[in-house]
Amino acid sequence: MRLALVITFLLTTGSVPVHADLDRQVLWIALQTCVLAKKTTGRTFPCLAVDLGSSERAGTAVLRAPGQPTHIVVMPTERVVGLEAPELQHESGNAYWRAALAARHFVTDALKGATPSEDVGLAVNSEGGRSQDQLHIHLDCAKPSVRAALRVYAPSIHGSWAPMPIALQGSRFFAMRIRAADVESFNPFAALARLPGRRPDLVQTSFGVISTPADDPETGLFLLAYRAPDAHAEMLLDHSCSTVAKAAAR
């Protein structure tokens, strides 16, 4: 019971740093429970899904934040501290990216199909902006205000990093476009190493992913990133999915 309460607190306050080392390992402990359950019984509880992977393929697990039906996290089954981990610059980074994209249906399923997977955003927080030292990719509805801003500025976002002309949720992001044809082979962790500005500091970097507008002539995804000691692109997501929930209730 105490573990469940701690997990609830940590996952629902993911952008607030927790400095006690043990508290920063709770997600890792929960993950080990999921992996053990999968290996011994074939079940995945408390996770929604567990892929143990193989010697050639990275394993992943999917967990729902307690009390937040649409807030999903995707994580490696191996120990990966965060987006600054060097191994993410290679194939494993792409593998976790694909797993996160594939898990978007858990968000839309919770909403009973009231929104398409294209309305689901992704986010990974920096070391100072996260509460857990196990890589976890947040999935949830993108905030309507963020989508509206990106719709306006979509024509100026291309295939390489450029600063957004306006702040999103109070922070100045760099943005780049990922064409639909390139999404599966893309590695966002490697793209962060090419972020403009001072020498790359992935420890203080955070990124979010939002789909291009449905009527955009070059469909795909927008990758958004910024640097700050407590960078948390999770602020681009709406964990209440308020707009969708209101629409579904009508």
UniProtKB/TrEMBL annotation:
SUPFAM superfamilies recorded: HIT-like
Primary location class: membrane
Source species, domain of life: Bacteria
UniProt-recorded Gene Ontology molecular function terms: CDP-diacylglycerol diphosphatase activity
Signal peptide range: 1-20
Listed GO CC annotations: plasma membrane
InterPro entries, sorted: CDP-diacylglyc_Pase (IPR003763), HIT-like_sf (IPR036265)
Entry keyword set: Cell membrane, Hydrolase, Lipid biosynthesis, Lipid metabolism, Membrane, Phospholipid biosynthesis, Phospholipid metabolism, Signal, Transmembrane, Transmembrane helix
Pathway field: Lipid metabolism; Phospholipid metabolism; CDP-diacylglycerol degradation; phosphatidate from CDP-diacylglycerol: step 1/1
Pfam family, one: CDH
Reactions catalysed: a CDP-1,2-diacyl-sn-glycerol + H2O = a 1,2-diacyl-sn-glycero-3-phosphate + CMP + 2 H(+)
Its membrane topology: Single-pass membrane protein
GO biological process: CDP-diacylglycerol catabolic process; phospholipid biosynthetic process
EC number(s) on file: 3.6.1.26
Compartment list: Cell membrane
EC class name: hydrolase
Similarity annotation: Belongs to the Cdh family.
Designated name of the protein: CDP-diacylglycerol pyrophosphatase
Organism: Methylobacterium planeticum
